[in-house]
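Practice problem: predict the structure.
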Amino acid sequence: METVHLLTLGCPKNLVDSELMLGALTEAGYEITTDPSSAQVLIVNTCAFIEAAKKESISAILEAAELKAKAPGRRLVVTGCMAQRYGAELRQEMPEIDILVGTGNFLDLPKLLRRTESASSSSARGGLREPVPSSGAAHLLPYRGATRVITGNFFSSYLKVSEGCNHQCAFCIIPKIRGVHESRPLADLVEEARRLVDGGMRELNLVAQDLTAYGRDLVPRSSLAQLLFALNELENLKWIRLLYCYPNFITDELLTAVAQLPKVVKYIDMPLQHADDEILRAMRRERSVDAVRRLLDRIRRRIPNVALRTSFIVGFPGETEQAFERLLNFVAEQRFDHVGVFTYSREEGTEAYDFAGQVPEAEKRRRRRQLMQLQAGISARRNQSFLGKEIEVLVESEIVGRRQRKQGRAWWQAPEIDGAVLLQGAAEPGEFIRARVKRTFTYDLLAETLDPDHLRGASNGKSRNGGKPQEFHGRPPAAVARYES
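Answer:
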């Protein structure tokens, strides 16, 4: 039995692909290890969306190649968006790679590994080398009955509802990697969600390139709202969260579902990208700033106390100082709960690559710092409003070296990207507990647990593996490649 170590980079959608790969490998008889030095097969599931993500992926591949060289017969597999986008270049420039698996054929990995087993024993550099993935866009959807090895917390996971994207944003390469939008059947999603909840999941985070496009391509036609109503019926599921909502398709039906369904947290992640009309048109975002304001007003009227996360790109070609000031004013006016800010990444193959008015890198970084400083003040003042209040917290983990300190999240905090609640007192991962906020920081809260036994039963026990997280991959820095939606 060969052992496999898998490192996942990029977004949660890529993480789901990794978990499906691990499922296929375990079914084929491979053993998963968290220790790369003990693995016969090293897998790097890459991201290639923006320049920072590509550099991180190359660095991880090189580190794996160094480890491969220390053990004859060890094989190196590169999967994901970088393999799909740059397969031919990687094959030429990095002979250490034995197998390249793209976004459309990653479930073939067990078969490809079997074909290289005998050849790998004779050469540390791989022997037989498999061909690169087919060029162009491709994706694989999860399907009913597919084995998926959950690699994170046993109580919180991602549910990928669709793949691909039909939008033509000028900065985005995703449609040329992943292809056109395709929804999963509603029954498949409900069945996967049921299996996850039966295994101990209490929070499901819905992800897609464009979550709000879900169901429009199905026959019969469905919608994200219909999916939410179906998921809301699952017993023992506590939180359902929406990530990557495209602003043009926030319907009244969806807002009604978010407002009325008790298990859907009042949280909407909706990347807006900018707040200047000319820049939005150049980005092909299809909305004016006035339309965005009306949409935000409508969301806040329909869902009182909604938590809004968004992201913006600074330094897009043609962004003048005046356009940037309009963005600053918009953020100060709207006071979003959470904001991510990215510097524009010039990506070959995108429409914006050849745009005039490219902004110098130093200026991009300056604008990002300024916008982040503005949002930091907004976030700090928002957190101060919780001082002394009682909140519900999903406990996530112990803080290393502090037995009586735990880390968790409130309903308005998505995994890995929105800050945390630092807890004093007794609590166990996977529990929903009550806590009182004692101190506030820019993005985090410090709280003390109340009635440690209260809501202890809400965790519905442990997962089938005894409540121990199955950490089979390395997690990337938060939000490396999140501005695609």
